[in-house]
Structures are given as structure tokens and as C-alpha cells.
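Why does residue order matter? Because the sequence determines the fold. Keep that principle in mind as you read this record.
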Amino acid sequence: MTLKLAIVGGGPSAFYVASRLQKLLSTNPNFRVHVFDRLWSPHGLVRYGVAPDHPEVKNCTHKFDEAGTDTRFRFFGNVNVGESLSPVDHAIQLPLSSIFSKYSHVVFATGCTLPKLHSDLPPSANCVPALSLVHWYTQHPNAPLTPPPLDKLSHVSIIGNGNVSLDVARMLLTGVDVLSKYDVPQPVLDVLAQSTVKHVSIIGRRGPLEAAFTMKELREMINLPEASMVPLDSDILQPPEGLALTRQQSRVLQLLSKGSKNTFGTTKKTWSLDFYRSPIGLQHNQLSLGHTMVDPKTQRAVPTGETSTTKTDLVVTSLGFHGEPSASYYDPGLGHLRTLNNRIITPHGHTLKHVYASGWASTGARGVLASTMMNAYDVAETIVNDYQNPSSELITEQVLNAEPLLDEIPDEVQKGIEGRQVVQYPDWKRIDAEEIRRGEVLGKERERMHWEEARAFLHHQA
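Structure:
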């Protein structure tokens, strides 16, 4: 019996599923896994989401490379699967029906690729999602056509205090001499070198005990070499009477009480954690904030009735992510695909035979790489269990080909390979090696290529 799996999406979850299946089915001659991604390069958020100054987080790519070099594995980059047009204009289009007709199993590992927006802060020249900045400094194919005007900004306000907020703040407050050794494209360094940003305000609607950032990220902010933190009011750092603090909460309060490594007032650049504030409007460069408190019963932020206004040059919203509403099996109430025990559920409540979802596509945008790995391993176990123990009890719809040709690929992808539009894993490894070589010349981790440059490089090597 054939297990020919198509994984839609080529990020960490996809590679963890593939890797686990390769181990679980190590002796199975009837197993294949093909990964499709609309981006031309693999590894998703590891390449286009991890902060450049966190190279250690990218060590998982060694495991991904092991999966990628398995003879039963193939990767097809620059392929947009689905009926909606790709936001990446150079990706080839592959209808979902072409996947269903050529594969016996499918996993959606499409992640959550769109930013959640604030109803009182519509995108404008003065207000952008953090994702736009992340796309810019990682040279994502969806990056804005023009870089942020950092040479015209002095004060930046970030709404939300999760790890992405602190990543963006760190990028804005760290000197180019430090960032230049990391995986930061030269055009990005050129813009950062002209930056006039002097202060970054990180705004959260609850207090330090509820802050979403991790200790690691906070410690990195505290230790920024060229910036200092505005000291917090001591009242904010006093926990409610009788509240038992977790170890993390105690450590957060201790760190914030000590303040930054650099004493406030001794640096040209500064940053602040502005707790108990929620945006209620933006007029030009005036950000209106509602003051809040934490309801002790619900732990939710509630307004106190007070308001204030802050002058700022740019507002960056960092409020999380959701899936694409145009995606098949998307549930608007959840903000991602609906699943039950890792299996896709249709809008009518039916289970699809051998159709699964993993990672953020299934769980929503939460957790770190370790939790993504554990979820992917669980999905792989479900796939193998269904494969080895066929049961029709849970199945109400069958949309896949039960006995596809093992090594056949969709016609559209074959044509894309012939037209040098589709990137396969050996192609990626050549690009990877060249990016690292170019980086070594410049004394940095790597120097990235954009699509046209990568395509020309592969064509020249052919």
C-alpha cells in the first residue's frame, strides 16, 4: 500500500513531519514525501522570521538538510498550491486538485502568514505591521517595495510586547557594526546605517506579569550595547498582594527592577516598556492611548477611563498572526485550519481521509520551534497509525488518489522545473553554499540572494 505524501508549505513543521516519517517508515519502499512551497527557498520562518542576531535558532536546518537529502524526499519551491493567486508574483500556480489526484496523503503546513491588525490602527504611512519590517530585514519575497524611512524617524511605538516586538526593537536599536556580522542583507544594513531612530516605545495593555516576551528576549534588550531603558515606576513592579508568582514572573520583575546595563541618560538611544496602555487612535503623529488595568478575576485588560497622547513618528503593530482566509478548510472563527486529532475537518464537519494539518496551520500562531517539532511528530504518528490501521469509521469524505504513481509529480511542476522556475533541494543547497561563501568574503554569516539573483545563479551553473 502506497504512502505518497504531499506537504503544502516548506517551513519547520513540514520538515519535522518529513523527518519523522522517514524514521518511522525507514524500510518502507512505498513511501515518498514531496514538499511544496510558494517561496523559492525552504525552511519558512527559520529563514524569514528568526531574528538575524539569533543564528543559534537556525541550527535546526542541519536536521532539515538530513530530511532533504533522503532519496524519498523532494522539495519544489516557488510553487503556490491552491486556487487563490500567490502574493509571490513569480511563483507558479498549482491547483489543489492536481495535488489530490497525484497523492495518497496530504499535510497542510501553511502556517499563519498574515498579521492581526488593530481595529483602531489601520495600516497607513504612519502605521505598519511588524511583519512588514521582518519581511524587509530578512529579504522575504513579500517584502515591501520600499524600505522603512528610518532616516526620517526619531520615535517608534510598537504595539504589543511579544518576542516579535522585541526583535524589531532590537534591530532598530542595535548598531550596524554589531549587526553586520549576522545574516542581514547589505541593502538592509545600508538603511539601518542611516537610521535616526532615538527611542522605541514598546506598548502593552497589561502589566509585566502578563507580558508575552520570554526572559531571553528581555535580557537581550536589557543588555543592548548602545541603548538604555527608561526606568519603570516602582509601583508597576509591585505584584498584587497575596499573588503567588511563577519563577518566570519573579525573574522578570527582578530584571526590570535592576534596569538596563547602560544607565538611563548615558546613551543616545533609549527604549521603554509602557505597560497598561492600549491604542485607541492615531492622527498623523499623535498616538492616543487608553489607560488600562488587569481585572483580577479574568486577567483581561479593562479600561480605567483615563487617556493620554504620545507623539511618535511610526507605529508598528505586533499583535500576532492568522492564516489566510482564502485557504481551503480555513475556519474564520479560529483564524487557522480546523482540525480534530490532526485531521482536517471540512466546514460541514466531515473528516477528510488522509488529509492532515501541522504546525501553526493547525494550532494557530503560538509556541516556539520546539513545540512546532512536537506537534509535527504527533502528526507524523497519526499519519502512520492511519496508514497501518485503516479504518473507515472516522472517514466521511475521500478526496485523494488511493494508489498514485509513486514517483510522478504534477504536470505543472514538471513544466516549472523545465522552465527553471521551480527550485529543488539540490538547487537550494547550491544557493545556500554560495550565500555562505559570499558572506565569508564580507566577514558575515551569509549574504542573501533574492529570487532573480538565485535563478540567474542556478542558470549560470547549469
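Residues 46 and 59 are 9 Å apart (CA to CA).
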